[in-house]
Amino acid sequence: MEKMKSFPNYILESSWEVCNKVGGIYTVLSTRAKTVQSAIGDHLIFIGPDLKNNADFIEDNTLFADWRKVAIKEGLQLRVGRWDIPGRPIAVLVDFTPYFSKKDEIYAWLWEKYQVDSLHAYGDYDEASMFAYGTALIVESFYKHEVKPSSSVIYHANEWMLGLSLLYLKYHCPQIATIFTTHATTIGRSIAGNHKPLYDYMTAYNGDQMAQELNVESKHSIEKQTAWHADCFTTVSNITDRECKELLDKAADVVLPNGFEDSFVPQGVALSAKSKKAKKQLLDVANKLTGADFALDKTLVVSTSGRYEFRNKGIDVFIDAINRLRFDNEAKKKVVAFINVPAWVGEPRADLQERCQAKKIFDTPLSEPFSTHWLHNWNEDQVLSMLRAFHIDNNKDGNVFIIFVPCYLNGHDGIFNLPYYDLVLGNDLCIYPSYYEPWGYTPLEAVAFGVPCITTNLAGFGQWALDVFADSGKENDVKNGVKVVHRTDNNYHEVANEIKDTIAKYVAYDEEQIKDAKKNARQLSKKALWSEFIQYYIDAYNFALEQQKQRLK
Asked: Over the stretch 483-500, which tens digit does the pLDDT of each residue have?
């Protein structure tokens, strides 16, 4: 296959989320691995932090056994094994704790060679940087003892957290070609998260100045220097590329959209059966909370999910749109909206657990019938505060309900006890009205499972969907699997109204229209498989290798 000839001999890729499921980068790496491994086999090696409890890591001392012994003699603390994901690629976990004792020395070198400002570091900066330093030593040792000089080698660092590793290797091991991917700029996320207008004023912002103002100088500094010194600088969408250009003063060399591996998505009859089971369970919990009666075929289930970034993820707009629907829903169907966002969760509600064990329909509500779990900050939580402000009480005689699920849906939440991918199948429509979303895996996951969704043009996935619709002549409409709402710094109310109107439109769909929308959602997702997107990575590998050749001349 011609494409496969363009892969390098070795790819060593690092991230804090290797064998550590804490965010979207885990999905990027774990779903892409199988596609790359099919091309270069066990010459794809992931490097992650040794957190001692990496659940999806299977140690195997037979892998690179000779090098492992040499590395340990060199003083490196590592474990070698396989990452228990599709393809089961090799993974190396790094114990980075020994490097804290020489932290000041490392930071001094970083300032001297690359003018990275670590003086204002706080929070997770030290931990990430020591992991990055340990990773660099691992890669250097592996290259020295395992790789032939004639082999082409890529080191791929993800996010500012691994910036130090790339800069170290650029200086000490220049034979390795380097790629740096920022999945979201530190300063862009900070501007958006601090309720400042990001898009209208982006060209007016000075990234260095804003980093100082928002107290993210050290993270911004290493991110910017790594972007400038990598052989190939990449990001995940054209939207974030604009951010990089304006706030890091460096446009991406290659844009790497995030693909998806759908081998675990149920097909045909199995998909229908799991969808029905999940919807039934969602509505059962809704009944136990509210005392309302929810018929399976006369209730529309919608949801939003993701990190608890109230404005950036559009959680505020979601609640507002559902609230507006309360006064505009004359359809025959009820609407139950779930907010699946991990918060400062305390414990699952014992009263709800007791009801869930009873095999009957309830006609009376529990107290506080809008949350499945108790929170440590019940009176201060932003979601609950907004529900209270709108006087949303989930009255059992109403037509629109909102339920907060403030925990990780990992199959052990105490109420649903189903993993997220099983539960998302129970939705009729998913809604992600993001203000800041470099890519957006949640809408891509939804359509892969055949659930139509609403997103915005400020999400990389939303912009990609608009491009696909434009190329194919399709209308930007929920009937085609995705509705992309136009969002700006200042049109919050228009967005809330358009989402409300789209839900109302979908509520009125008949069975055949819903079937078509689900089919179109699945078809759209096929265009975002890794088999389609891997070519962008091949472009980045080739770009990095060419730059490495040029600088070594």
From this structure: 999 999 999 999 999 999
